[in-house]
Amino acid sequence: MSTRELGCEEVIERLFDYLDRELGAQQAEDIERHLARCRDCFSRAQFERRLRAMVEASGTVTAPPRLHRRIRHLLDQFDSDETGAIP
Amino acid sequence: MSLASSPTPFPTWQPCPPRRGDSGAAMRHRDSAGQRQWFEERLEPLMDRLYGTALRLARHPDDAEDIVAEAVGQAWRRLDTLRDPRRFEAWLFHILTNTFISEWRRRRSHPQDTPEGHDTDHLEATEFTLFQQLHQPFLLWWGSLEEQFFNSVLEEELQAALDALPDPFRLVIVLVEVQGYRYEEVSRLLGIPLGTVRSRLNRARGLLQKALWQQARDAGITSGHQGEGGP
Questions:
Q1: Is the CB of B131 less than 8 angstroms away from the CB of A22?
Q2: What is the per-residue DSSP string for B46-85?
Q3: Does ipTM surpass 0.85 in this model?
Q4: How many residue pairs from chains A and B have C-beta atoms closer than 8 A?
Q5: Are the beta carbons of B172 and B181 closer than 8 angstroms?
Q6: What digits encode the pLDDT tens for the residues B57-113?
Q7: By the CB < 8 Å criterion, does A24 face chain B?
Q8: Which 25-44 residues of chain B touch chain A by CB within 8 A?
Q9: What tens digit of pLDDT does each residue of B165-176 get?
């Protein structure tokens, strides 16, 4: 597939597909080429990337100590079930 | 996580073919202590992300803990099905996701119900972009309003905004943006068409950004398009 110059409207329309890695290599490259020369679209892409990074970071939360204990106990129980030993 | 730097190599064992009627536990010939150590060494660094992901999916801390515990239990029981130890993390998170989805489906009385037909501000949510509110195109550098926004949004506020999204929208945005699933994978996981994944994701983002915009305004950040104020 040959490269083609994209307009801003098309880039913005496909921006989330691009950020979500849903585009093929050539399409992604076309968008990256546009972002390299268009300050407005680049700003938009950077903004959405940054917001997305925050959303991704929301998926990391300190696990409470009782969850750690619960899992240790769970694994101990499995082990004792298998060996017949009392944990 | 690199296995090359791990002190405990992936334990080798001889998985026996399952016999009918057998739970599988007695069939495993394995170095239990070594396997447990291997498992726990890889599990420990993932705990915060397992819990956080479960929390974004389930919203409630108690439910999140239940999901993580169930998922870890399943992973431990099924560890001998993991052929490539380098895939442990992806494999474990997949178990976590499936555990949540099974429970979610079980709890929902009408699994096919979607809010698409009931959302009265559908168009408004999909057309709204936070960037448009904050961006000041006349500036030569990244606008200070955008910077103010990112400085003002607290982790807890973002989490609350995500948690407030209706289930079908929250799930797709968590699966895509938190867990990194592709649209097709989400379509399979949730049993919905690819087009529905896209439209829900679009709406989820619109709703999330609207909520964050409201928080930004509450924090005193005004639109970059209002008056001559500027930064």
A1: no
A2: GHHHHHHHHHHHH-SHHHHHHHHHHHHHHHHHTGGG---G
A3: yes
A4: 110
A5: no
A6: 999 999 999 999 999 999 999 999 999 999 999 999 999 999 999 998 888 755 444
A7: no
A8: 25-26, 28, 32, 36, 39-40, 43
A9: 999 999 999 999
